[in-house]
Automatic annotation (TrEMBL):
<protein>
    <submittedName>
        <fullName>Hydrolase</fullName>
    </submittedName>
</protein>
<dbReference type="GO" id="GO:0008081">
    <property type="term" value="F:phosphoric diester hydrolase activity"/>
</dbReference>
<keyword id="KW-0378">Hydrolase</keyword>
<feature type="domain" description="GP-PDE">
    <location>
        <begin position="13"/>
        <end position="249"/>
    </location>
</feature>
<dbReference type="GO" id="GO:0006629">
    <property type="term" value="P:lipid metabolic process"/>
</dbReference>
Amino acid sequence: DGRRYMRAPGARVTVFAHRGAPTLAPENTLPSDEAARRSGADWIENDVQPSRDGVPHIMHDETVDRTTDGHGRIRDLTSAQLAGLDAGKWFRPEFSGTRVMTLRGQLADLRSRGGRLLLEIKNPQTREEIARIVDEVRHSGMSDRVFVQSFDRESLRITRDLAPDLPLGLLGDEPEADPVAVARELRLTSYNPSYYLITTHPDLVRRMHEAGVAVFAWTPDNPHDWSKLNEAGVDGIITNRSADLVAWNRQH
Ligand code: G3P
Ligand code: CA
């Protein structure tokens, strides 16, 4: 049920820190998540994908090329190879030595430092791969602080099947003919559309709320867009600039 994630009238929007704080530190790494935590964000959004040996790692792209000093598809590299990469130097020299996080490391950090995790199952993943993610979440004891999202419906169905307790959000970047029917079929807690779907579909938030589904929109980074989403009644905003959105929230 998405009602517990909906905002009460007059309450501020929930702040989701997209890939941590990617304007301050290398995205999807410990320093980025730490900066997001310090910014006062309610949730940290990170992406998860398996290495060749099936270990869930935190990374957005299908290849390691943009965000590390290595080359190739994350799926083709072992966890030992990934552990040897530098995931910070590309961003700024002072972040040299930053490592690619495993999901296990991410969850351990969450447990010791606090915070909640919006975990995106990136790209369609197999049942076995999703089982590994779910196991990591369970063993970490962090199940009540993790929310799973994906663009891939089958990945969400598998997650629901393996972990009925985890809240699920469907990411959307195309209009849905019947978003309420989709939400019912997938038993969604939230629908997480691209910002433009909210501005082009004025009744979308109301329809989802009536169906008991929360709405989190991504990834506007400026006050003009935050105002529009706020007025549209979204429950949460997934942003690259969580520190600014937290400050903006205090004034609105
Ligand atoms: O959380 C929404 C957003 O993360 C989806 O797009 O490509 O940044 O993972 P992407
Ligand atoms: Ca993401």
